[in-house]
Structure formats: structure tokens, C-alpha cells
Amino acid sequence: MKNIILLLLTAILFTGSTALAKKAPNVAFEDLNGNKVYVSQFKGKPTVLVFWQVYCHSCKRELPAVSRLAKEYSDSVRFYAVVIGTRDILLIEEKKMEWGFDLPVLIADYRAKSAFNIFGTPITVILDKDLNIVRKIIGSGKEKILKRTLDKLIQE
What we know:
40% of the residues lie in helices and 23% in strands. The protein is an alpha+beta fold and 156 residues long. Strand 4, helix 2 (57-72) and strand 5 form a beta-alpha-beta unit.
């Protein structure tokens, strides 16, 4: 049992802190107007996808922090809050106002969630301008890691 826990922790830490250099899956999300948004449309500019749920307490802290970063990087990086587990637009808008974030929201279905291997929230996925997954950050409070990664991507 101890070995299994150690293996799981190692896998989580490895995934959360190491460049993945894997091509992002070209799945479709849906914006709040019902339009399809494909990952391939993000090409040309680094993109941050923060996967979240409306009843996630950590997401309540994470999304306003990432929203502040989005303002700082508005000219050079795209940011999206990708909601999973609901399609209720009124509830999504309510959480945006209540939690105080203004990132554009995309809705992920089961295929998109699975393609990005999202198993909890918040999980932040960072794509480079060529749509490679360069980092996957698990949990909240990792703004320094996000900022450091974005600074490096912008310089490339």
C-alpha cells in the first residue's frame, strides 16, 4: 500500500512540474454562445486552459488569481476557464460574478475532459504557440509556476 501511494504521488508531482512536450488533442469545446471552439484555433499564441467545476473550493481561489495574470499577459497569451460537469450557463455566469473572475469560459464535454486527462480540478494546461502541452499544473496556488512558464514561452 505504501508503494502504491508513493507511486501515485510521484506521478502527480511529475505531471505537475515537468514539461510534457506532447501535442494537444484537437478537441472541441463550446463557448457560452453555443459556438464550437477547437484547440487548433489556439495555434500561434501560447494558451492557458484552467479546467474547473462550479462546486470546487480550490477553483474559487484559483480563477481570480489566473484572471489577474491574464490581464498582465493579455497581449501575448490566451486564457480560458474550461468548465466541466455543467452546461448551465446561468450557473456559470453566477460563479464568474460571485468568484470575481472574467476569463472567457469554454464548456468541456466528456471527450475533451478525457483527451486532456482531467481527473480533478483545478488543473491548468499550458500550450505553446504550436499547440504542444508544455506544462500541466495540478491544484491551485501555483501562480509563480504559471508565470515562470509563460515568461519562458513568450521569449521563445
